[in-house]
């Protein structure tokens, strides 16, 4: 997913942060925070199941920081509702069949084995009570 991010920095502040070398690090930290990604999901027993790839950015971020923000969106990633906090867990392989079945009930293409990749992994998202 691609997006355009427009940033306005006051001239004096921008010049000062360029001069002391902190501007690149500040922009990098902002970009690391703002990485929304659309995902297909299935809900079961109050938990969300998501299939992604082990080489995807969201997988790497969740592996390091399991606290996530989720929101309903269009299939192109345009947010259409409120955000919620959730905790993501990378499921071990023995829990994949349950997650795959939940997704297959919602998305018929999940039933087509040749679309699966060896890099596919499953996530479980749980919202606080």
Walk me through the structure:
With 129 residues, the chain is an alpha+beta fold. It folds into 2 domains: 1-34, no CATH class; 37-126, Pnp Oxidase, Chain A (Roll). It is built from 4 helices and 5 strands. It has a 5-stranded antiparallel β-sheet with strand order 1-2-5-4-3, sandwiched between helices. A hairpin with a 2-residue loop joins β1 (41-44) and β2. The chain starts with 10 loop residues before the first helix and ends with a strand.
Question: Topology of this protein?
Answer:
Blueprint: H1 11-20, H2 23-33, E1 41-44, E2 47-53, H3 57-64, E3 67-70, E4 84-90, H4 96-106, E5 120-126
Antiparallel strand pairs: 1-2, 2-5, 3-4, 4-5
What would you say about this model in short?
The protein is of the alpha+beta class and 129 residues long. It has helices at 11-20, 23-33, 57-64, 96-106; strands at 41-44, 47-53, 67-70, 84-90, 120-126. The chain folds into two domains: 1-34, no CATH class; 37-126, Pnp Oxidase, Chain A.
Roughly how much helix do the residues carry, as a percent range? Answer: 25-40%
| Number of discrete helical segments | 4
Order of secondary-structure elements: HHEEHEEHE
**Straight-line N-to-C gap:** 31 Å
Mean pLDDT equals 81
Radius of gyration: 18 Å
Domain module tally: 2
Overall outline: elongated
CATH topology of the largest domain: Pnp Oxidase, Chain A
Q: Which structural class fits the helix and strand makeup?
A: alpha+beta
Fraction of residues in β-strands: 15-25%
Number of strands: 5
* CATH homologous superfamily assignment of the largest domain: Electron Transport, Fmn-binding Protein, Chain A
